[in-house]
Each structure stands twice: as structure tokens, then as C-alpha cells.
């Protein structure tokens, strides 16, 4: 019985890593990341020049869309971190718009503390988790909206835990 219990937990841990943690660690290799100081949504001069470089390196003929995803580390409360991540995403959106990209081609998402690159304990400051991801795609591939700027929240990511919970709890 104990050996079965051990196998079950080992398998559930493997499922957890495969379905929950690996997609998040892939973000660490993304060159389109802009980092922020602790408890700040202000862009530095280096960040502004980095955004310029990202845009010029990804310019294509025709239109393209941007998805700006703001993040926070695990220090501070959940609601505060969510608000801070949206402020960071808006700051990057404004910097991109200043370079001539139409605002309706830029959507922002505030993830708060829900998708860290580096897993830490609650209350821990981690500079690599205080970031904004800039995802760029061809506008012809994106769904057509109503012409208004897109801003929405994406907060609940617990569906990724379902396989883990099924195996761990034996449901």
C-alpha cells in the first residue's frame, strides 16, 4: 500500500511539472522581456531603448499586433500585484504607442504573481519575476475586434492543476 502511495505521488509530481511548471520556465528564454524595479511600473531609459529594439527587430511588412503581459513577484498582496502588473503592461503599451503603433493593435494582460519565471516563497522579492512579456504576431493571423483597444484580465490559471489534482487526490 505504501509503495502504491509513493508511486501515485511521484506520478502526480511529474504531471505537475509537465503541465504546470515547464510552460512557465519557457518564458525565461524569451528575449522580449522588459524588467522593472521593485514596486515600480516606470520604464528606465534602458527599457525604452530595449522596446525600440524589439519593435525594430520584429517589423514586418503590413500590420502586426502586440500582446503585452505584465507580471509581479510574490512580495505584496495578490490584488496589489495584479494592479501593479497591469500598470507595467500599460507603461510598455504607452511606450510602443509612442513609436507609432496603433493602440488598437496592442492588448494588455495583467497576470499579477500567477506566472513567475522563478518560483519563490510568498513575500520573496525576485527581480526576474518583475517583468513584462512582449508577444508580437501578424495582424492578419489575429482575430478581428471592434477597433477598440483590448485590455482584459487573466487571473485564474488553476485549470493547469486539474491533472495534478486528479492524480494526487485519486479522483
How would you describe the overall organization of this protein?
The protein is α/β, with parallel strands linked by helices and 171 residues long. The protein has 4 helices and 5 strands; from the N terminus they run H-E-H-E-H-E-E-E-H. It has helices spanning 2-25, 45-57, 78-97, 162-169; strands spanning 33-35, 64-70, 106-110, 131-138, 150-153. The radius of gyration is 19 Å and the shape is globular. Mean pLDDT is 76; it is low at 18-29 and 145-156.
Key features of this structure:
single chain; 171 residues; alpha/beta; five-stranded mixed beta sheet; 4 helices; 5 strands; 16% strand
Q: What is the general shape?
A: globular
- Rg, Cα atoms, Å: 19 Å
Main beta sheet: 5 strands, mixed
Spans of 5+ residues with little confidence (pLDDT < 50)?
Answer: 18-29, 145-156
Beta strand count: 5
Average the pLDDT over all residues and give the rounded result. Answer: 76
Please summarize what this structure is.
With 171 residues, the protein is of the alpha/beta class. The protein contains 4 helices and 5 strands, in the order H-E-H-E-H-E-E-E-H.
Q: Mind sketching the topology for me?
A:
Elements: H1 2-25, E1 33-35, H2 45-57, E2 64-70, H3 78-97, E3 106-110, E4 131-138, E5 150-153, H4 162-169
Helix pairs in contact: 1-4
Amino acid at each position: 500500500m505504501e509503495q502504491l502511495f509513493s508511486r501515485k505521488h511521484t506520478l502526480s509530481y511529474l504531471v505537475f511539472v509537465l503541465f504546470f511548471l515547464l510552460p512557465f520556465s519557457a518564458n525565461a528564454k524569451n528575449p522580449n522581456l522588459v524588467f522593472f524595479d521593485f514596486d515600480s511600473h516606470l520604464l528606465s531609459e534602458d527599457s525604452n531603448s530595449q522596446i525600440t529594439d524589439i519593435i525594430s527587430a520584429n517589423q514586418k511588412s503590413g500590420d502586426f499586433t502586440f500582446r503585452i503581459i505584465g507580471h509581479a513577484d510574490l512580495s505584496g498582496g495578490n490584488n496589489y500585484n495584479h494592479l501593479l502588473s497591469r500598470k507595467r503592461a500599460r507603461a510598455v503599451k504607452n511606450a510602443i504607442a509612442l513609436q507609432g503603433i496603433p493602440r488598437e493593435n496592442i492588448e494588455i494582460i495583467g497576470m499579477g504573481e500567477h506566472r513567475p519565471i522563478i518560483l519563490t516563497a510568498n513575500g520573496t522579492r525576485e527581480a526576474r519575476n518583475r517583468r513584462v512579456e512582449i508577444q508580437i504576431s501578424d495582424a492578419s493571423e489575429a482575430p478581428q475586434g471592434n477597433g477598440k483597444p483590448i485590455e482584459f484580465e487573466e487571473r485564474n490559471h488553476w485549470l493547469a492543476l486539474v491533472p495534478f489534482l486528479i492524480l494526487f487526490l485519486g479522483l
